[in-house]
Design goal:
Elements lengths: L1 E6 L3 H13 L5 E5 L8 H4 L3 E2 L6 H15 L1 H4 L11 E2 L3 E5 L2 H16 L5 E3 L1 H7 L10 E5 L3 E3 L1 H15 L2 E4 L2 E7 L2 E7 L4 E9 L5 H8 L5 E13 L8 E4 L3 E6 L2 E6 L15 H14 L6 E14 L6 E3 L8 E5 L5 H17 L15 H4 L11
Parallel strand pairs: 1-2, 1-12, 2-9, 5-14, 12-19
Antiparallel strand pairs: 3-8, 4-8, 5-7, 6-7, 10-11, 11-12, 13-16, 13-17, 14-15, 15-16, 18-19
Helix pairs in contact: 1-7, 1-10, 3-10
The structure holds flavin-adenine dinucleotide.
Flavin-adenine dinucleotide binds next to α1, β2, α2, β13 and β17.
Length: about 400
Amino acid sequence: MYDVVMIGGGLHGGFAAWHLLKREPGLRIAIVEKDPTYEFAASARSNAGIRVLFSQEENLRMSQYGHEVYGNFGELMAVDGTPQPLSFWRHGYLFIANTAAQADDMAANYEVQTALGAEADLIDAAELKRRRPSMNTDDVTLACHSPKDGWIDPYGALMGLKRKNQALGVTYLKAAATGFTVTGGAVRTVTLDTGETLAADWFLNTTGAWAREITGMLGFDIPVAPLPRITFYFECREQLEQHSLTIDGKGCSFKPEGKGYVTGHTVFSRAGAFDWTVHEDRFEAENWPLVSHRIPAFETVKLVNSWACHYALSEWDGNALLGAWPGQPENFLMATGFSGHGLQQAPASGRALSELILDGGFQALDLNRFAASRVLEGRKEPERGVKA
Ligand SMILES: Cc1cc2nc3c(=O)[nH]c(=O)nc-3n(C[C@H](O)[C@H](O)[C@H](O)COP(=O)(O)OP(=O)(O)OC[C@H]3O[C@@H](n4cnc5c(N)ncnc54)[C@H](O)[C@@H]3O)c2cc1C
């Protein structure tokens, strides 16, 4: 018998446990994770970027809290007084607009961002060229640079959080959830592929791109689909200036990684099913034309490594789905659909889940905008500008 059982032990499940135990140290918590190596988890394969460049206050505030937690991770996750340092490269984010419409979105978003205390500069093509001499800026209509943003080591965060949770008393079980029992309008138990059955007062669906499989076990469907996304690591002969995590309006992103760079390209029409094939040919067909257009020195690069992973894409509006599903047991909560911004928002999502359990509603940040119930209410809340 547990107080809370998380299905899925990535960053969202892990941060929910951590927040719960920070407030109620006596809680009995189990995290059920089918793959403790996290080989396929988005949390381990993420680009791990943290940015203030959002158009919606809730998204921005969640990521600001992500800055706070990942920025102080070593101390917050200290075990027996020993800090667990986390690498955080603050080389900034750079959004590039290529059309007048993208520039309009960017300028409108900038007003929101700066009003909320985010540090960002709206810059024209000439200023971009001054800051990033290796870039082709001929087709740039506007750019937005947030110099204090950056990216972390995602696997380091995942392992540090797990160690901290274990020190706080969380039980991590290697097992896959295969079904639930529901009586009297509440989920009572989860069955595992090990043959075990766990009873609890609360169940959290923190399985990311697998979340729909879990709700299917309870007999309802959510608009969250795996979106296959391949990450390519390449090296460039030329030594360039320090680059930020750059998201180009043409549909491609890249960031420095070790001696080289990683790039990804989001094709929304590929959402729907898991695809673990590493389609290397897509580098030359899709990514390379875009990144070499932006940085001509990337015309001669060496592709070194590639791997596949999946966004938990919110097909509804690109934003998270939080909390219970209307008409379903109220002790079954979800946090999924974070698309390409879930690592930075996992600390805030975990806090939100802990508040739903301990307080019966959102407290630190009003996240009703992202309540899962909005789907059945027909309310869409898309970001303006970058959608993932
Ligand atoms: C290529 C890529 C780049 C990204 N870049 C960024 C970025 O720059 N910034 C950002 O903020 N976010 C980014 N994201 C998104 C972010 O990584 C995810 O939103 C976040 O890591 C999701 O965490 P999670 O805990 O919900 O899911 P996951 O980390 O995927 O964890 C879910 C876990 O559930 C487990 N599970 C599944 N089914 C079961 C079951 N039946 N029983 C038990 N366990 C189960 C899985 O094994 C998995 O470990 C990126 C994602 C990808 C794929």
